[in-house]
Design brief:
CATH topology of the largest domain: Lipocalin
Number of strands: 37
Pfam families: META (PF03724), MliC (PF09864), YscW (PF09619)
InterPro entries: DUF306_Meta_HslJ (IPR005184), HslJ-like_sf (IPR038670), Hsp_HslJ-like (IPR053147), MliC (IPR018660), MliC_sf (IPR036328), Pilotin (IPR039366)
Keywords: Lipoprotein, Membrane, Palmitate, Signal
Structural class: mainly beta
Largest sheet: 9 strands, antiparallel
CATH class of the largest domain: Mainly Beta
Protein name: META domain-containing protein
CATH architecture of the largest domain: Beta Barrel
Radius of gyration: 24 Å
Number of helices: 2
Number of domains: 4
């Protein structure tokens, strides 16, 4: 994370994304630690879009001011992105926020209060999969720094005759790495064998009649045309951000490629994608869809507003969370639930089987919960409404509506 953050900070002043119609992103940044900012502290806020392209940002000295520090800057309209805020002291990162999603659109956006936490550089970082769980593990000053969703563990190096071992004094937390495999124990619980995994930042798009497919990965643009009969593997140029789209120009090959953050439905399968794409060749323009369908569901929690034709009453809150790796969880009003979610063919959606806790609540909550489980049990598709709401459908009819 630190390398990406520092690179984006360095690129702030050189962004060319603002020479077009813009909207304003504003809010305030703060932290919970009890410390005063020195005069030389600097607030940095930026918004990144597709493939880490920098859409805009600002940097401003604190000049004696204390948190919360307000911010406001312009970004091009029509793009979605992730906003990150950071505070630098003595030219070093001291506080940083988790990314905050900003939806595509043209209206101004007020983020509200964004919370920062202490930043600890961890040197080389890698991602490890331990069963269904993933962890980021870095190494700094003879420490292994293990980041989970709830905590950061700093484990000192321990004696080992085989592999690299890091452990707490009480032995309840331990990382023991041997090549690309490891064992991990957290709070006394030993997880399934861990394997190092490579982050997959590839992006794909496709279109029909004639069939074509494009892949962006590792600085390359691979293109299959005419159902794979013609193939190109090109260096990916920097994107030009204009007119609500990311533009990639391959002038030497008579190609240009553009993508925009607008919902796209495949005209053959009916599957929904997060981006519209357009490929211009010497012989014509080909249209298609791109991105990961699961990204439309994953991310911040959804709050259910309607079950069938009825609005959810104030008696309880029903929520849905979807992870990028296909897990669903949330609150059914009284009990927590969890399970699997899978994208099916022809744009379908498969949810379940679901498991739930078994608490008893007052009857209004139990009735709400029964209605929710009956509705989600028949879901076989989804859509995104014009206002961004999630519509879970059964044979095309909306049975659950949720918003962020």
């Amino acid at each position: 994370m630190s390398k990406t953050l520092i690179a984006l900070i360095a690129a702030l002043a050189s962004s060319s994304a603002l020479a077009q119609e813009t909207r304003t992103v504003s809010g305030e940044a703060t932290y919970r630690e009890r410390m005063a900012l020195p005069d030389d502290a600097e607030l940095i806020v930026f918004l990144t879009g597709f493939q880490g392209n920098e859409l805009g940002g600002m940097s401003e000295a604190a000049d004696g001011r204390q948190v919360p520090l307000p911010f406001s800057f312009s970004v091009p309209g029509g793009f979605k992105g992730e906003l990150t805020a950071a505070i630098m002291i003595d030219d070093a990162l001291r506080f940083v926020s988790d990314p905050v999603e900003v939806a595509a659109g043209t209206a101004d956006v007020d983020i509200g209060t964004i919370w920062l936490s202490g930043f600890t550089p961890s040197g080389f970082q890698s991602t490890w999969a331990c069963g269904d769980d993933r962890f980021t593990i870095g190494f700094r000053d003879n420490l292994a720094v293990i980041e989970t969703e709830e905590r950061i563990f700093e484990l000192p190096q321990a004696i080992s005759a085989d592999g690299a071992r890091f452990a707490s004094e009480d032995g309840r937390n331990e990382f023991w790495g041997k090549g690309d495999k490891a064992t991990l124990t957290l709070d006394g619980v030993t997880l399934p064998e861990c394997e190092m995994v490579e982050d997959d930042n590839s992006w794909t798009a496709q279109g029909n009649e004639p069939g074509w497919r494009a892949v962006m990965a590792n600085g390359r643009f691979r293109l299959d045309l005419n159902y794979g009969d013609d193939r190109l593997d090109l260096r990916l140029p920097e994107a030009e951000i204009s007119e609500g789209a990311y533009h990639y120009d391959f002038a030497a090959f008579g190609l240009s490629f553009a993508l925009s953050d607008r919902l796209c439905r495949d005209d053959m399968s009916g599957r929904l994608f997060p981006q519209e794409v357009e490929l211009e060749t010497a012989t014509g323009v080909l249209k298609g869809c791109g991105g990961d369908t699961m990204s439309l569901l994953a991310g911040p929690e959804w709050t259910v507003s309607e079950i069938g034709p009825e609005s959810v009453s104030d008696s309880g809150e029903v929520t849905i969370s979807v992870s990028a790796d296909g897990r669903i969880s949330g609150s059914a009003g009284c009990n927590r639930f969890m399970g699997a979610v899978k994208l099916g063919g022809e744009g379908g959606l498969e949810i379940g089987p679901l498991a739930a806790t078994n608490m008893a609540c007052e009857e209004p909550l139990m009735a709400l919960e029964r209605d929710f489980f009956r509705a989600i049990d028949v879901v076989n598709g989804f859509n995104i409404a014009e206002n961004g709401d999630l519509l879970l459908t059964a044979d095309g009819e909306t049975v659950i509506r949720a918003a962020r």
